[in-house]
Amino acid sequence: MKKLLTLLSSITLIGSTVLVASCKNNTQQSQPNSDKNPNNDQQAPSSNEFILDNIKSKFDYVAEKQDSLNFIVNALKDNQWKTLSTSYTPKISYLDVKDLNEDQITKKYETKIKELNREIVNLEKERDNLLKSIKDFKDISSFKSQYINNNKECLLIGFTYISENDCKIEKFDPNCNKAPLLPSFITSLESAFTNNHNAKIEGIDEWNTSNVTNMKYMFLSAENFNGSIGSWNTEKVQSMYYMFSNAKKFNQALTNWNTSSVTNMEGMFYNASVFNKPLKHFKTSKVKNMSAMFLNAREFDQDISSWDTSSVTNMGQMFRGAKKFNKPLKDWNTSQITDMNEMFREASVFNQDLTNWDTSKVTTMYGMFNNAPMFNKSLAHFKTDIVTDMSYMFYKASSFNQNISNWVIAITDPDKVKGFNRDTHEEFTGDKLPERIRELLKK
């Protein structure tokens, strides 16, 4: 009963103004009142149905109001104000546009617009408060997003409860370029703006993301997006898995992000082809997976030498295709890494000292320096006794000419060393190779 009163109070606070939501009740409604209406054989609506009806009507009002305002403003901007008095009659009673003429775009009108804008901001806050109350109303497990202006403006953010404490946002329409406040109970932003078409999405720069734990796929293939989101609170985020993957125009500062809780950065900037902002402040002590993190991040060349990589187990393809990257990595702790496959493949200019690296747990070095034409640093210290695949490790690494004859090799399958030194420096052969490698290459 207390929750019901709280929710009804939230509705009452908005007064006669009303908001828009398409609500979906995925769990069983409470039983309707057993009393019959003497004039109707149907059961009286339950308290849940009453609440949902009120919510729908309240969200309806804001949709109508915002749509009316946008029509008026756009008409005036396009110098089509004359059409307002003849072809359109907005239902906002206090905004009278009939008196407008060619000489009267007055301060009075401007004041009305400002008043309406202020009211809309307040209504957005009321929406958030209403949703916070709904969160505790257990019969409501999901909402459907609501839009106006051909799905360009989202009025209500949809969500679904995955569990009692885990609430996932509904993916935004690809055309959406304006979003309201983020409900504070949403914990997952997974795929929120996947395939979004816009360069900027108004409103998301002010989101409070302090309760968000998942940003997986958030801007996946949002190929035009380049909005400012550097002020977000990411303290609780655990996954940034493929977050900016294929966000081909994204290049914004993330210097204020706290990544101390992140465990997965796999593919975070995969194919983010212009991204090149400082990341040295990233706290990475809990990150276990950095595979494909900068795969095809063609412009990236920032100092990340101070990262704590002591928990990382996978760096496969991490810098593959990072054609401009050539920053020191010698102090990285690689003691837990098991996968270095194609780590520097097609890293066109990379040529840094790796003598401090501990490779004692690495099991695959497949294509590690494949087509890394500038690399020519000593790797004599590498521990390779449990590596099971070295095929194409130095394929087309045309400058590499180091002595690695001391490597301990346990591989017995010739296919696992296939192409090992093919098309490398002409002198990288014979006694510079481990004896086992030489034997397998002959088979």
Describe this structure in words.
- The chain has a four-stranded antiparallel β-sheet, with helices on one face. It has a two-stranded antiparallel sheet with strand order 3-4.
- A hairpin with a 2-residue loop joins β5 and β6.
- It contains five helices and six strands; from the N terminus they run αβαααβββββα.
- The radius of gyration is 30 Å and the shape is elongated.
- It has 443 residues and is mainly alpha-helical.
- Among the domains are: 2-28 and 44-128, no CATH class; 313-443.
Q: What's the quick description here?
A:
The protein is 19% helix and 5% strand. The chain is mainly alpha-helical and 443 residues long.
Helix fraction? 10-25%
The secondary-structure element order is HEHHHEEEEEH
Low-confidence stretches: 1-48, 81-98
Head-to-tail CA distance between termini: 79 Å
Top keywords for this entry?
443 residues; mainly alpha; 5 helices; elongated; disordered N terminus
